[in-house]
Amino acid sequence: MTDIFSIDYARQLDQQDPISRMREQFHIPKQDNGDDEIYLCGNSLGLQPKRTQEYLNYELSQWQKLGVKGHFSGDFPWMPYHEFLTEESAKLVGAKNSEVVCMNSLTANLHFMMVSFYRPTATRNKILIEDHAFPSDHYAVESQVRYHGFDPDQAMLLAKPREGEETLRTEDLLNLIELHGEEIALIMLPGVQYYTGQVLDMKAITQAGHAKGCKVGFDLAHATGNIPMHLHDWDVDFAAWCSYKYLNSGPGSVAGCFVHEKHHTNMELPRFAGWWGHDKDSRFKMENHFIPMKSAEAWQLSNPPILSLAAIRASLDTIKDAGGIQALRDKSLKLSRYLRDLLEQELADEINILTPADEKASGCQLSLTVNLHGLDGKTVFDRIEAAGVTCDFRHPNVIRVAPVPLYNSFEDAYRFVTILKDSLK
Ligand SMILES: *Cc1c(COP(=O)(O)O)cnc(C)c1O
């Protein structure tokens, strides 16, 4: 029988990997000894594609040479620049081109979406979110609830895993919606949960929510660039995501947003508007009569930061070069499976994996807890970091590792488990 826990076996898997060449298109941080870091932190900050510098330099030189005329000249004029990102962004989330736009930051987009899609009434004013949502999502929801004059203790309905369990069961979520649906104005859940790496059943949740008359939106911070989605077909009302995790567009880079086309012509929807959401043909007539575009772009406020969009364009071109999101997912399933198999074979007694084993319920992150008396997760994390692994630790007790299909290798997975094993001694 072949031993899967061997460097030869890992290298063989790399040789069979149709997108192993993509690793060379990224800057991989180095350890002090000059070796590549074992970078398993793309769920927090994705690595820099080599194209990025070139694309940024191009825009800097356009600005040097053209000044304001850069808005209208060159290969990628700034005026319509966000449109150059539309097609590839739409593919990532399974949307029509008119349904996506790159703008603002993630939390800002969640707020702007809630302005339009959280319309509480006396009897229907709750927002369903997770009990341990990412803090920014929790704060955004809480502050929206207060802004509308409701009490967060009453109006925030929190979905919890069962006693003794770490992940949410779809049946429990659906029951919650069935039970409280008439009081729920908005369901806002993650596509992929940041702490456990669990992929939620967005289609089933959306269907159940709509059946009860709720609006349904998703935070896709950990989903976009990780798993394929079909937001349009699933009939999701809105979604938002950041571009610096699996989209490798650099720290704090501009976020993405989806608004289903069925809302594009609804003139009743309230929104916080800005000039970049105004009809393109008359935007510069400065007539101060807001005519929203009939697309997700209607929610734009400002002319966007081009340097950040250039980094997103570099990232989207890199993903396209790899064959798109399905090619990433195909490798991701194998790479995560390999890492999981190694952990289960070598460290079954010492390590628990919180992330569901079911392929449909997991992406490219495994969340691990240490199960050894007298050794806590943080100590182990410090040891593996000192040995060349970059991953992250989330309180109270989880080591998150993300083997990213674009630039991580099967050898990375093998080396990680070797180091983890040593660190548990
Ligand atoms: C990363 C992440 C954020 C970060 O929000 P920013 O507005 O980009 O700072 C928010 N929510 C979730 C679920 C995240 O994973």
TrEMBL record:
Gene (UniProt):
kynU
Q: Do you know which InterPro entries this protein is assigned to?
A: Kynureninase (IPR010111), PyrdxlP-dep_Trfase (IPR015424), PyrdxlP-dep_Trfase_major (IPR015421), PyrdxlP-dep_Trfase_small (IPR015422)
Write the record's keywords in alphabetical order, separated by commas: Hydrolase, Pyridine nucleotide biosynthesis, Pyridoxal phosphate
Say which domain of life the source belongs to. Answer: Bacteria
Task: Report the pathway entry.
Answer: Cofactor biosynthesis; NAD(+) biosynthesis; quinolinate from L-kynurenine: step 2/3; Amino-acid degradation; L-kynurenine degradation; L-alanine and anthranilate from L-kynurenine: step 1/1
- PANTHER family given in the database record: KYNURENINASE
Classification of source organism: Bacteria, Pseudomonadati, Pseudomonadota, Gammaproteobacteria, Kangiellales
This chain belongs to the protein called: Kynureninase
Cofactor(s) the record lists = pyridoxal 5'-phosphate
Q: Name one GO molecular function term.
A: kynureninase activity
Q: Where does pyridoxal 5'-phosphate bind?
A: 106-107, 134-137, 219, 222, 244, 275, 303
EC numbers, comma separated:
3.7.1.3
Record carries keyword Hydrolase: yes
Tell me where in this chain the PTM N6-(pyridoxal phosphate)lysine is found: 245
Q: How does it assemble?
A: Homodimer.
HAMAP family associated with the record: Kynureninase
Function comment: Catalyzes the cleavage of L-kynurenine (L-Kyn) and L-3-hydroxykynurenine (L-3OHKyn) into anthranilic acid (AA) and 3-hydroxyanthranilic acid (3-OHAA), respectively.
From the UniProt record, list the reaction(s) this protein catalyses: L-kynurenine + H2O = anthranilate + L-alanine + H(+); 3-hydroxy-L-kynurenine + H2O = 3-hydroxyanthranilate + L-alanine + H(+)
UniProt record similarity statement: Belongs to the kynureninase family.
